[in-house]
Design brief:
The structure holds two protein chains of two kinds.
Chain A lengths: L1 H15 L8 H7 L4 H26 L1 H15 L11 H29 L1
Helix pairs in contact in A: 3-4, 3-5, 4-5
Chain B lengths: L1 H15 L2 H22 L4 H17 L10 H20 L25 H5 L4 H12 L4 H8 L3 H21 L5
The chains are: A mainly alpha, B mainly alpha.
């Protein structure tokens, strides 16, 4: 009985199995294929953004980073009186560099999502 | 020979970005992939075509991750299976995937009345449908289905057995095979 049921199902599925004609499906797929070079650039961009964000975080967490950022913000709040800053110029440049890297990271992330959603 | 030819085409796509080689793979596998997704979506032609297209695009984008451990067709079916389950998850995040029922949107007016495979497949859960489609329609062995779905072989056998029982009852109730 079970064998007969099995045969009925197999026969039915065999009858129903048919090849689906292409009807332009393949060419539609080929038209929509992404450019793999662009894809690679997007991946590289994402990796670069990670490096930038990591570098920025590393700097912020370092001995000078946090103090520098706070003092820089304090000074900015004091009507940009740059001449009164009591911080090492080199460290200020590092802080700005870190901020710049973080911004680059953000920019790459934004571009990445824009390209992927497009 | 079939697999060697596939590997040669995949190598051309991966190394030389040869789109024509990928076109040959699409032409070769469009029918089984679309048929598999058509079964999973209970005969929704438009949806299955969209999911099939997504499958091939994902295959193209990730072709360098193909390691030839199980053959190109198995890898492709695995992508199709993941694409389908991602679609189900996007439709219904909270409930069990087996509870999701797909409403077919066939363009044929009498499609609901016809004793066809999609009407029968609608009685099965998505997991049963997947296992029955791959085993009984695409003629894949249980171990390949395990690679595609990530389910244990025993679970796959249970799904196939339950699926067959449901299909058999449906067919007998509709006078098939008398």
């Amino acid at each position: 009985m079970a064998d007969k049921d099995n045969d009925i199902v197999l026969q039915f599925l065999k009858e129903q199995k048919q090849d689906i004609p292409d009807n332009g499906f393949s060419s539609r797929v080929m038209r929509n294929l992404p450019d793999r070079k662009t894809h690679r650039l997007v991946v590289l961009g994402r990796m670069w953004s990670c490096v930038c964000i990591f570098a920025a975080l590393l700097f912020i967490c370092s001995d000078y980073g946090h103090t520098l950022i706070v003092s820089a913000l304090d000074n900015i709040m004091c009507q940009f009186k740059i001449t009164e800053l009591k911080i090492n110029t080199t460290h200020l440049i590092y802080a700005m560099g870190a901020a710049y890297l973080a911004m680059l990271g953000g920019l790459f992330n934004w571009l990445y999502t824009k390209i992927l959603r497009a | 020979m079939k697999e060697i030819n596939d590997i040669a085409l995949v190598a051309q796509v991966a190394v030389f970005h040869n789109k024509r080689a990928f076109g040959q793979l699409v032409e070769k596998y469009q029918s089984p992939v679309r048929r598999f997704l058509l079964n999973l979506t209970s005969g929704d032609v438009e949806l299955s075509n969209d999911l099939s297209q997504e499958t091939f695009i994902k295959a193209y984008s990730n072709i360098t991750s193909f390691k030839n451990l199980s053959g190109f067709s198995t890898w492709l079916f695995r992508i199709a299976y993941n694409v389908f389950y991602d679609y189900l998850r996007s439709r219904k995040d909270t409930s069990s995937l087996d509870d999701v029922v797909l409403q077919p949107q066939s363009s044929e007016p009498d499609a609901a009345m016809k004793l066809d495979v999609h009407n029968a497949m609608r009685l099965l859960t998505p997991n049963e449908r997947t296992c029955v489609s791959l085993h009984l329609m695409e003629d894949l062995p249980i171990d390949k289905i395990a690679q595609i779905t990530g389910m244990p072989e025993g679970t796959i056998k249970s799904h196939i057995s339950r699926g067959k029982a449901k299909l058999s009852t449906y067919l007998k109730n509709n006078g098939y095979g008398r």
